């Protein structure tokens, strides 16, 4: 599943399901939920249209990595590298390197995949383009 490679890279600091993700690297993925809430999610993979997951964070990621932001805020150095490597992957394979990750909802709440969505938009993929996504319900 999508979570295992992330845990290998970022570590898994939780000993019990009563702990909160707030203040950890995992807050970016799960918000400030307790692990008990995260553990109850049922994950499935589906395809969704890009338009359903484009949000302010995706637009900010696109602006940071294309130099079009006027906010005076810079993305981390690794952001540009990730963005460019995804573009290279898309140009070679015609697909994103890994599914997006979202919480179920209308619209789905994107947890992981901002750079992938931004790269698709940058390359001109239509907003109706379908992408694979892990969805937690």
Polypeptide structure, described:
The chain has six helices and four strands, in the order H-H-H-E-H-H-E-E-H-E. It is an alpha+beta fold. Strands 1-4-2-3 form a four-stranded mixed sheet. A hairpin with a 5-residue loop joins strand 2 and strand 3. Helix 4 crosses helix 6 and helix 5 crosses helix 6.
Quick rundown:
It contains six helices and four strands, in the order H-H-H-E-H-H-E-E-H-E. The protein has 137 residues and is of the alpha+beta class. The longest helix is centred in the middle third of the chain and has 17 residues, at 77-93.
How many domains? The number is: 1
Tell me, rounded to a whole number, the average pLDDT.
85
Number of strands: 4
**Ends apart, CA distance between termini:** 15 Å
β-strand amount? 15-25%
> Element order, helices and strands?
HHHEHHEEHE
CATH architecture descriptor text: Alpha-Beta Complex
Number of helices: 6
Shape: globular
How many whole angstroms does the radius of gyration measure?
Answer: 15 Å
> If strands are numbered along the chain, what order do they take across the biggest sheet?
1-4-2-3
Flag low-confidence runs. none
The chain-level structural class is: alpha+beta
Can you summarize the main beta sheet?
4 strands, mixed
The CATH class is identified as Alpha Beta
- CATH fold name: Conserved hypothetical protein from pyrococcus furiosus pfu- 392566-001, ParB domain
The portion of residues assigned to helices is 25-40%
Organism: Luteolibacter algae
Protein name: ParB/Sulfiredoxin domain-containing protein
């Amino acid at each position: 599943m999508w979570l295992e490679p992330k845990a290998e890279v970022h570590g898994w600091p939780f000993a019990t399901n009563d702990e909160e993700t707030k203040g950890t690297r995992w807050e970016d993925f799960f918000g400030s939920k307790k692990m008990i809430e995260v553990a109850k999610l049922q994950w499935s993979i589906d395809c969704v249209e890009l338009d359903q997951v484009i949000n302010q964070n995706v637009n900010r990621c696109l602006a940071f990595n294309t130099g079009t932001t006027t906010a005076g805020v810079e993305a981390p150095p690794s952001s540009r590298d990730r963005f460019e490597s995804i573009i290279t992957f898309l140009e070679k394979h015609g697909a994103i390197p890994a599914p997006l990750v979202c919480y179920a909802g209308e619209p789905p709440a994107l947890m992981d995949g901002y750079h992938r969505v931004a790269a698709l938009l940058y390359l001109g993929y239509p907003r109706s383009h379908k992408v694979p996504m892990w969805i937690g319900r």
